[in-house]
Amino acid sequence: MGSTPLRRPLAGRVAVAGAVWLWIVAAAAVQAAAPAAQPADPGAAMAAPAPAAPSAEVLAQGKAQFEAACGACHGANGRGGRGGAPDLLTSPVALDDGVRFRDWVRKGSPEKGMPGFPLDDTSLDAVRAHLVSLAGQARRMGDRQIAIVGDPGRGRAYFEGAGGCTACHSLAGDFAGIGSRYPARVLQGRIVLPRGNGVHPGLLQLGVRIPGITDGAAVQDAPRTVTVSPRNGPPATGVLLAISDFDVSLRDASGAYRSFARHGAEPRVQVHDPAQWHVDHLARWSDDDLHDVTAFLLGQKVEAK
Ligand code: HEC
Ligand code: HEC
Fold first, then answer.
1. C-beta 70 within 6 A of ligand 1
2. Are 160 and 132 in a shared domain?
3. Ligand 1: which atom is nearest the Cα of residue 72?
4. Do 263 and 285 belong to one domain?
């Protein structure tokens, strides 16, 4: 993949990508609308007699408290956020044991960026009930939705054959256990465009918010890089920080921040996106291939040891 000229015509691709995302959004909405119809988690039911479900009032209180005290760092939906605040919907500290949770939150982890919260038992139990409820929803949505429509066998054939994915990815390497890393719709989003939680940037610009998807992504992306070549002076290369018609900024290998004003074609700016293949492929996905390959990758789980 070479350098990418700026301002490539994207309109046609965006339209197709929009259709794919609408499908994802629609599927998410259907799931969100019908949580009551989902069967209870059979494993949990067998392990121990289920404790009485928390009342709607307790859940509402926990939600309000969580969003006010914790959401700024952990994401309004608990999925993790800025400054290393982890995803609480997969956290044993948050989910496994109420006593441990209370102790943990009261002490916090000040050296690593979480202050302690002197909250009473009732408040903390309500916050935890809210998190447990969110985690249950996330699990049901992630596990169900996409696996139903795709065929993993055809997905494997596409992955290893016509799709050409193995030119860059390997089931024994970067994709080992990938099905355990993301919920289904996030995985599908990242297949289409490996950015953030796999939500089309246009949706974010429109202000569309999908709980569990558009917020709190604890996902590392390979950054775009840029080379800026002023006519009178040495070129600068580094991680692209921001670009507009008027300026471009980067962080170079020494960690220094560099910013350049732009006047038309001066200086010359070349952006390189490591995920360019995915950008180019946006217009070529068929629904069937996408669903099949998603179902296949979703089945690549980490082996239990
Ligand atoms: C200022 C940011 C911030 C706020 C506010 C915050 N946290 Fe945290 N939280 C963090 C960070 C950072 C960590 C990781 C700390 C570590 O690794 O030791 C963390 C870790 C946790 C963990 C441990 C997760 C695990 O699996 O290791 C729990 C549980 C938790 N927070 C709950 C809460 C709750 C509940 C609230 C609100 C009452 C809250 N946090 C508010 C930043 C924050
Ligand atoms: C020319 C190289 C190339 C090809 C071919 C390619 N990809 Fe990728 N893909 C990438 C790069 C580079 C990234 C990483 C971007 C990042 O880390 O931010 C990526 C990321 C991904 C991710 C997200 C991984 C993660 O850990 O979040 C998925 C899923 C994915 N690709 C699936 C596919 C599938 C399915 C195909 C075939 C239909 C495919 N890719 C073909 C280069 C490629």
1. yes
2. no
3. 5
4. no
